[in-house]
């Protein structure tokens, strides 16, 4: 599968509360992200959830991360089939799932499907494939985010891909991925670099290759 403001470090993504994920905060009181940019925190992350982070293998932009039976559902029927048969279900932001709130709802829907077919939630690994662009520092990240937002506007898309991409220094990318995973309820994140370079090498030093 594949909009709030672009991610900055460990900032939250969405302005709307994710269903069942915790109470909304006062919209008049934005907090500060790890990188110093204001961010509205609308959901409370599950701090106890263990989250794995891996980097997509070179040339594989949507990896299966070594899972024996991995599904990438793109419809309700495919979601039900994934719930019944998959060892791992990979989700990603799209025009159909454009925001963090929508992703959290999709994860809950998948969990309901898993329960409906009599499977244990622990037996199905839910993974978020997340587009990322590691940068040398926060200043470069701001320029890159602005550029991606400009491209979105020119493309005339019905959603903003740039709003759910993580553009930040490598350590902040990993932190943002873990924060996002806990907010939407997934078990792991596979970071899918938008371009190769030293930043991606740094990412791979921080997280294993999927």
What does this structure look like?
Helix content is 33%, strand content 16%. The chain is built from five helices and eight strands. The strands form two sheets. Strands 3, 4, 5, 6, 7 and 8 form a six-stranded parallel sheet that branches. A two-stranded antiparallel sheet has the order 1-2. Helix 1 packs across helix 2 and helix 4 packs across helix 5. The protein is globular, with a radius of gyration of 16 Å. The protein has one domain: Alpha-Beta Barrel (TIM Barrel). It is α/β, with parallel strands linked by helices.
Domain count: the total is: 1
- The total count of helices amounts to 5
Global Rg: 16 Å
CATH architecture: Alpha-Beta Barrel
Count all strands and give the number: 8
Instruction: Quickly name the level 1 CATH class.
Output: Alpha Beta
Helix content: 25-40%
So what's the overall shape? globular
CATH structural fold name: TIM Barrel
Structural class: alpha/beta
Order of helices and strands: EEEEHEHEHEHEH
Overall average residue pLDDT: 77
The CATH fourth-level homologous superfamily: Luciferase-like domain
Oligomeric status: single chain
- N-C termini distance: 18 Å
Unreliable sequence segments: 1-43
Strand content: 15-25%
Query: Describe the biggest sheet?
Result: 6 strands, parallel
């Amino acid at each position: 599968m594949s909009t709030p403001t672009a991610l900055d470090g460990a900032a939250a993504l969405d302005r709307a509360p994710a269903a069942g994920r915790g109470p909304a905060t006062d919209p008049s009181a934005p907090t500060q992200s790890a990188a110093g940019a204001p961010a509205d925190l609308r959901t409370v992350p599950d701090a106890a959830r263990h989250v794995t982070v891996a980097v997509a293998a070179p040339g594989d932009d949507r990896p299966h991360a070594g899972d024996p039976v991995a599904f990438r559902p793109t419809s309700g029927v495919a979601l039900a089939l994934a719930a019944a048969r998959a060892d791992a279900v990979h989700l990603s932001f799209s025009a159909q799932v454009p925001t963090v709130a929508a992703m959290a709802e999709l994860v809950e829907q998948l969990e309901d499907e898993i329960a409906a077919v009599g499977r244990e939630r622990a037996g199905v690994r839910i993974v978020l494939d997340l587009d990322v662009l590691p940068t040398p520092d926060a200043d470069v990240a701001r320029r890159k985010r602005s550029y991606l937002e400009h491209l979105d506007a020119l493309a005339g898309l019905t959603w903003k891909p740039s709003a759910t991409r993580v553009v930040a220094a490598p350590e902040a990318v990993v932190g943002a991925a873990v924060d996002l995973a806990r907010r939407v309820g997934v078990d792991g994140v596979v970071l899918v670099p938008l371009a190769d370079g030293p930043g991606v090498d740094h990412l791979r030093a921080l997280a294993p290759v999927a």
